[in-house]
Amino acid sequence: MIKNNLIMTQNKLKNFIINLISIIFAVFLCLFVANFVFIKISNQKSFPRSLSGSLPNILLVFHPDTYKNNNLKNYTAILGGSYAQGGGDAYLSGIYDYSVAHHLHKQDKKNYLNFARAGYGSISAVSNLINMYRISNSSNFINDLNKPDSVIFFFNEGHVLDANFREFSLFSKQDSDIEKFVINRFNENLKINSFDKLTNNFPLLFFFTKFYYHIENLFKKIIHEPKKIIFFITNSFKKLFGYTIVLQTPGDLKKGKNTFTNSVKNREDVKNIQPLQAAAPILTKEEILISLNIFFESIKYMKKWGELDKIYIVYIPSPVTLYDWSDPINYEVPGDSKIGTTTKEKNNINNKFITDKISEFSTKNNIQFLNTTQHLYELAKSKKIHGPLDWSHLNYHGYKDISNYILNK
After folding, report:
1. Which of 136, 217, 289, 303 counts the highest number of beta carbons within 10 A?
2. Sign of CA dihedral 298, 304, 307, 311
3. What is the DSSP string of 78-95?
4. Based on C-alpha coordinates, what's the Rg of the chain?
């Protein structure tokens, strides 16, 4: 009797283990198939753009519809910050061709892969290209990338210099020179950790992690302020699905005081505009030179890595540069809620100083410099190429005109 009971117990345990293994295998198989399908559909045609913010970095490269999927041997890499990525009214309004890369691909049918990300300085921009190249070649599911045939590097006058100098202030030693600083930052940025490798091969995991992050934050906010439960739930799900909740303006504008606004002379269609991006208004000439040299050293590093002969620097002037604003001009202080004031004359002096230095570097290093300042300035005389929602970036007409300018040059 005892022996029979023991045999029955052993059989039950054996069946339980077999069933458990079968369930684990079935779940793993389902996740594996789902992960494969997720990668295949994570493009602009099949995957909602409102959810693209929940994609891992490598899939963000392939999400925009700016290349031929069946022939990616040759491509042009787009580098830079939010301008290069396509931030602005077209993106916020759900327009399909929201970036320069879309317009370029639509016109010449060549491959453009976008490695630009909002907020990137020069070192981060180049690092992302190199890391995404390495990641693509270590994945079993994603197309292996060659090094790019050419690079279009967008230089945003209103952001990149501040981002570069902020990074230098945080991570440099007082006695370190720019070249050593840039190399040290690349050595740090080009380390791919285990989580990057995991999400690279299993992006569905990143998607679920992002979802969990939003849900966790939602519960924390509800516990802290239970009376705002409806507000928190609505905004959290909007944020989860990639929607912009509100385009806030800095300083007193956040408090409802419409004090710090800008208007263009003799233009009724451009008035009472929020504080704007300007040509490095908070940096001294010495600090601008440090930031520019970080940009130059980053390009040299990229050129050597990719053995690149075709590099194009596309200069995007700030909104303060492109319109005839009435003085004083209110600008947003980068990374702060404060408001600063400048004049058109001071801003134009900085614009000329910056563009002259980039022109000198480009000529010396056989790089084509496309300075769009005068072209966009003339265009902005007759129509708005920014806003009306987002005056920190170009709108649909601005990006389309930039792409025409690049192709014509």
Report:
1. 136
2. positive
3. EESSHHHHT-SHHHHTT-
4. 25
Signed CA dihedral, 183, 189, 194, 196: sign only:
negative
Closest CA to 123 of 83, 88, 153: 153
Collect all residues with Cβ–Cβ distance below 8 Å to 130 and sequence separation of at least 6: 190, 302, 305
Structure tokens at 198: 């995991």
Is residue 236 classed as helix, strand or coil in its secondary structure? helix
Q: Is 387 left (phi over 0), alpha (psi -120 to 50) or beta?
A: left
E-only strand ranges, 131-173: 150-156
Show Cβ contacts of residue 53 under 8 Å, excluding neighbours closer than 6 positions: 210, 242
Q: Which tokens go with 298?
A: 């980053």
Which segments of the chain have a pLDDT < 50? 245-256
pLDDT in tens, 187-215: 999 988 887 777 777 888 887 787 777 77
N-to-C CA span, the chain:
92
